[in-house]
Amino acid sequence: MANLTTFDFALRLAVGVACGALIGVERQWRARMAGLRTNALVAVGATLFVLYSEAVGDAGSPTRVASYVVSGIGFLGGGVILREGGGVRGLNTAATLWCSAAVGVLAASGRLALCLIGTATVLAVHVLLRPAGRLIDRVPQRDPDNEGVRATVHLICERNDETHVRALLSQALANDGLAPTGLRVRRDDEGSTSLRAAVALNGDPARALEQLIARLSLEPGVRDLHWHLDDTVLDSEREAVA
């Protein structure tokens, strides 16, 4: 080894794997996809690649190798990102792997104190910012464009099921956080009952009402079910036939 002794090699490698393992312990404890071994191996790999460039004695090589490590971890992190419905899962895991690689690069470069500081920062982000994120999620989100929106839910059911369906409608509105402002009932001579429930909405009206429609459309006594916003044209009406 031209510029790196065996002791320095072993020391830097040990610090790299230890810091990666510390990050992985927290991930393993939280039962995340990438745990102890994965984060430790990412840190070891990044450390070894940079240590190799140090060992061959090329002064400019460690920086180039570190940039290649960053690119390689980007591909590895992309493999843990999954799409679930309309959301994405695994971004935090991918970012943690990226940080483990950065910790390994710091260890391999001999900046052991900086490596420890970086590890402590990653752990602090996971441990201390998690409660802050949950607190922010609990704060009600207000969208001025959707405040004060009113909609009408139309429902046709069998006369014999009227009492049951009305109770389900009231319960579903309450469960979805919708505020009913009125209910009109009309019975025809064919044994059917038409219900029209006016509701006040805050937030995304389509999401709240589609969930309501999906729940009520499963009832066997419901023959027709749809909703529309009171201030929109007929083209905005969404229908779901039970």
General description of the model:
It comes from Streptomyces roseochromogenus subsp. oscitans DS 12.976. The chain crosses the membrane at residues 6-24, 36-53, 65-83, 95-128. This protein is an alpha+beta fold and 242 residues long. It has two domains: 6-138, no CATH class; 145-239, Alpha-Beta Plaits (2-Layer Sandwich), CATH 3.30.70.260. Helices cover 55% and strands 19% of the residues. Strand 4 (179-187) and strand 5 form a beta hairpin. The longest helix has 27 residues, at 112-138.
In short:
With 242 residues, the protein is α+β, with helices and mostly antiparallel strands.
List descriptors.
242 residues; alpha+beta; Alpha-Beta Plaits; 2 domains; 5-stranded antiparallel sheet; two-stranded antiparallel sheet; 7 helices; 19% strand; disordered C terminus
Distance between the termini: 75 Å
Mean pLDDT level: 78
Task: Catalogue the unreliable spans.
Answer: 232-242
Percentage of residues in strands: 15-25%
Task: Please specify the SSE layout and strand pairing.
Elements: H1 6-29, H2 36-55, H3 61-78, E1 82-84, E2 87-89, H4 91-108, H5 112-138, E3 149-158, H6 162-175, E4 179-187, E5 192-201, H7 205-216, E6 222-229, E7 238-239
Antiparallel strand pairs: 1-2, 3-5, 3-6, 4-5, 6-7
